[in-house]
Amino acid sequence: MEAIRNISPETEEKAEQTLEERLGVPSLFQDLIRAFRQNRMAFLGLLMVLLLTVLALAAPVITPYDPYEVDLDNSLLAPSWSHWFGTDMFGRDLLTRVIYGARISLVIGLVPSFFAMFIGAVLGIVAGYYGGWTDFWIMRLADMVLAFPSLLLAMCFMYTLGATLFNIFIALSLVGWAGTARVVRSQTLSFKEKEFVEAARAIGVKRRVIMLRHIFPNCLPALMVLFTLRIPQAIMSEASLSFLGVGAQPPTPSWGLLVSRGKEFLFSAPWVAILPGVAILLTVLAFNFMGDGLRDAIDPYMKD
Amino acid sequence: MHRYILRRLIISIPVLIGITLLLFFLLNVIPGDPVALMLKEKADPDVIARVRTQMHLDDPWPVRYVRFLGGALKGDLGISYKLRRPVSDLILQAFPNTLMLAFAAALVAWIIGIPAGILSAVKQYSLPDHFFMGFSLLGVSMPVFWSALLFQYVFGVKLHLLPVAGFYGWKYLILPAVVLGWSSCGTVARLTRSSLLEVMRSDYIRTARSKGVRELMVISGHALKNSLLPVITIMAMQVAFLLSGSVITESIFGIPGVGRIAIMAIQNRDMPLLQGSVLFTTVLVILGNLVADLLYSTLDPRIRCDR
Fold first, then answer.
1. Residue of B nearest to A302 (CA)
2. Residue B25 to residue B62: CA distance in whole angstroms
3. Can you say how many angstroms the Cα of residue B224 is from the centroid of all Cα atoms in its chain?
């Protein structure tokens, strides 16, 4: 009894380590850190995204102007020291509206992409694990969604649901899951044959638990890459839908809408249309840098 | 080979039926009465009811779906609510313009993308490599509607080199084609680069080099042929992608194409026109993917053996 109590602290420490740590296999988190350390572009992307997030969160502190207040005396002012991006047709400070727009774009980038990942992961694992008709029908549904050009499908959703910002969330979640489902399904198919799943099955672990605890965590790295690469697509889709008039409605400072409203003044005040577009470009670039870096670090085989 | 083509064609049929079903459900479940919308406020309920019966809007949905599918198979996509003309006529009238734009854009994408990809692969990690990859990433990350406005401003408003919008000849096609083509030249360049890099690592290239074949010959005579296979097949897909991507470009440059019809249909809440134009474009995209698949299996017999 005494012998058991006298375990050296060293042994205790070892016992607390996971198998991965003892074998020196990098965890997902370590992979991520390595990705950003080794890939300068990914790091730059991360910095840009962080900066954007800070700007979006601190919007009321950063800018002295109100994004909605109309001031017709100061409409269409050229960029100056007091208005860095100039003002729009209603005299609102354009930079303020772009910063407030970052909130919309970030949320649009994250939330529908998350739901799309969620739907795709659940359907992909279920299809891959159950196989048979379940697999057949889920994958045919995915084929159909993928067959549509995504912008057109999103436009049809917006037509039916109505053009509001909230409905973009729904449309983009329902459009974006299919590609994820395909990847997750193929991963599930390969994990299903691995020994750890076989072992779990052999000791009688329930199917639901196997899918959730054994297969899902192994799909996480791929899901993370897909998620990061999905964000810029979602931001771009929202901007496009709002630009076409089937997304956010005025006076929401959505970037796509800002460009759209600005295009009428392209001849007299080009900055109103051009500058908000720079924000879209930089944000999408930043997320693409991050996504490419992550992909290279987590799965060298996913490189294009 | 014939069996493969046949199999591939048969697989496409359920997807085609599926997309009509999905589209039908998506666009036909809207609350709100298209007839009331069409006749504006002044219509009295009796008239609305009569028109609804005339338009078979009160039939159960399976009946309406079968009618829609049967019509679509015969090329009848219904009558536009707003323009009061057959949807198929409107689409066929607009399609040549969209096709011209898509091909011009594809040409831009290939002419820039393929050489850029080759140069990047041959001089991997060099300055030109970084430049071209940056250039293509920029193309992918740039919103098409924004680059369109930028080009309009620079080349149309400031330099007066090209017409800003409209569609009266080949000159009007240059700006839209460059804008749309740039967005997909990144895909072409990256694919060419990675495919060439992969081939350059294979054994037969090492053999060629060890025989003393000059590097230029190794690339042009040995590597390029195999590495361009995936690029050639993606071309068919690209045309399909550009056909659908022309929605925004067409509406900004005022090109009367299928994409602009779709936008117009949404703005006017013209369901048959939207349904028709989306169905038409989607079927084209599916056909484009089919052609890409078949092209690939023709060019590379290894693909067929796998299945």
1. B194
2. 10
3. 27
- Decide: helix, strand or coil at residue A11: helix
Q: Which residues of B touch A144 (CB under 8 A)?
A: 15, 18-19, 22
Q: Judging by beta carbons within 10 Å of its beta carbon (0-12, 13-18, 19+), is residue A73 exposed, middle or buried?
A: exposed
CB atoms within 10 A of CB B254: 15
Q: Is residue B176 within 8 Å of B107, Cβ to Cβ?
A: no
Judge whether residue B213 has pLDDT over 60.
Answer: yes
pTM comes to: 0.86
From CA A181, how far away is CA A123, in angstroms rounded?
6
Q: How many CB atoms lie within 10 A of CB B255?
A: 22
Please name the residues in contact with B286: beta carbons below 8 A apart, sequence gap of 6 or more: A147, B12, B15, B16, B19
Say if B118 is an interface residue toward chain A (CB within 8 Å): no
| A50: helix, strand or coil | helix
The pLDDT tens digits for A250-271 are: 888 899 999 998 888 888 888 8
* CA-closest candidate to residue A229, choices A298, A157, A161: A298
Cα–Cα distance measured from residue A66 to residue A93, given in angstroms and rounded to the nearest whole number: 8
Whether residues A144 and B27 touch (CB distance < 8 A) is answered with: no
Question: 10 Å Cβ neighbour count for B307?
Answer: 8
The closest alpha carbon to B239, from B299, B177, B300, belongs to: B177
Greater model confidence, A219 or A24: A219
